[in-house]
Specification:
There is one protein chain. This protein has a 6-stranded antiparallel β-sheet, with no helix packed on it. A 3-stranded antiparallel β-sheet has the order 10-9-12, with no helix packed on it. The protein has a two-stranded antiparallel sheet with strand order 1-2. The protein is globular, with a radius of gyration of 17 Å. The chain contains 1 helix and 15 strands; from the N terminus they run βββαββββββββββββ. It is mainly β. It is about 5% helix and about 45% strand. It has one domain: Jelly Rolls (Sandwich), CATH 2.60.120.10. Bound molecules: 6-O-phosphono-alpha-D-glucopyranose (G6P) and fe (ii) ion (FE2).
């Protein structure tokens, strides 16, 4: 019998930084987020090269039944008065869920079902978010520090961005120094 000990990937809980493991990294910049923020003029006035979020995920084989693990690091900032956020998506395989764990910073997880009903959960170090199937999800950074959250999701889930071209119905903005929610419908 041969026994082998394999070093697993390691993540530092306080920062969400991986220190080991086969990793894939992807940066999303303001220029990649066309029609994502409400204020088009403010978006055009921003530095297109500015990174909004980085995703670092464990490079695992997408075989049947497998899961992906990754950390999203969302920068603090705003476009106009709207806080930085991820693009957000439905899963291509709609029934597939996902789990997010807040690691650092503070923000909101926006969840929107297929009828367009939206709700929010606060994200903070240690928060656990069960994202059901048939639910679009987006992270929003309402704090002054990087918001980092670890995600675990089925490889089979895939991403469907096109289904959200009308955007999310709920927007999170800063008004007179406070976090405010706004209903928003694309015309
Ligand atoms: O795909 P986005 O909406 O840009 O979000 C960025 C990433 O956030 C999380 O880490 C999800 O688990 C990933 O599947 C997703 O790709
Ligand atoms: Fe997802």
């Amino acid at each position: 019998m041969t026994i082998s000990i394999t070093q697993p990937p390691q993540v530092a809980w306080a920062s969400g930084q991986f220190t080991n493991g086969p990793l894939i990294r992807k940066s999303t910049r303001l220029q990649n987020l066309t029609h994502v923020f409400m204020d088009e003029k403010a978006w055009l006035a921003c530095d297109p090269q500015q990174i909004v979020y980085d995703v670092e995920m464990v490079d695992s084989a997408p075989i049947a039944g497998a899961l992906y693990t990754g950390v999203t690091h969302l920068q603090p900032g705003k476009v106009g008065d709207e806080y930085f956020m991820t693009r957000g998506h439905f899963h291509a395989q709609r029934e597939q869920g996902e789990v997010y764990y807040g690691l650092r910073g503070s923000g909101l997880l926006l969840l929107q079902d297929e009828k367009g009903t939206a709700r929010l959960e606060p994200v903070f170090p240690g928060s656990v978010h069960i994202i059901p199937g048939f639910t679009a999800h987006r992270l929003i950074n309402t704090g002054n520090d990087i918001l980092s959250a670890l995600a675990v999701w089925p490889c089979a889930a895939g991403h469907d961005y096109a289904a959200l071209t009308q955007g999310f119905n709920l927007r999170v903005v800063e008004e007179v120094g406070r976090v405010q929610l706004k209903e928003y419908h694309h015309d």
